[in-house]
Recover the amino acids of this structure.
């Protein structure tokens, strides 16, 4: 089994504390509210959101996937950092065993930079190509921008 790492970076005019709260700490409340057609609900099936908690995301009817489960591996609220692992999904992955994500928000030019890395643990004998994960990267960027617009429209959210 090999590991293939992909990284991406987003910039925002929103403060890192607000983006972190919206996308990590309070995502179970905010995300279903602002993308109800794509994400039906997000709920903790174990824990309260801290390290070791398991969060299940239930997708809308139009999605090709019904649910995912992520385990929170590390959480540093003061430094706007989170590490979590995709541990289960209704879709069987033919090339990967699991994915470990790391997200870090830092201050920059009155807003923030979000650095995200994804470690794809590839199954023995499988080869993962850029096209295999492009859709996931595009969705992450889309969600980031939707949350940013939501926070800009209402400065009291996650303040």
């Amino acid at each position: 089994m090999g590991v293939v790492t992909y990284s991406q970076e987003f910039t925002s005019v929103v403060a890192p504390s607000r983006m972190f709260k919206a996308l990590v700490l309070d995502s179970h409340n905010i995300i279903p509210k602002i993308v109800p057609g794509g994400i039906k609900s997000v709920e903790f099936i174990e824990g309260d959101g801290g390290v070791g908690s398991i969060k299940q995301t239930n997708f809308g009817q139009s999605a090709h996937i019904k649910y995912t489960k992520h385990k929170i591996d590390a959480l540093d609220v003061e430094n706007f950092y989170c590490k979590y692992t995709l541990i289960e999904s209704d879709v069987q992955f033919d090339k990967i065993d699991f994915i470990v994500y790391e997200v870090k928000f830092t201050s920059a030019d009155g807003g923030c930079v979000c650095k995200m890395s994804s470690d794809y643990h590839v199954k023995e004998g499988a080869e993962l190509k850029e096209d295999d994960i492009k859709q996931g990267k595009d969705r992450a960027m889309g969600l980031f921008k939707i949350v940013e617009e939501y926070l800009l429209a209402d400065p009291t959210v996650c303040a």
Q: What stands out?
A: The chain has a mean pLDDT of 90. The longest strand covers residues 96-108. The two ends are 43 Å apart (CA to CA).
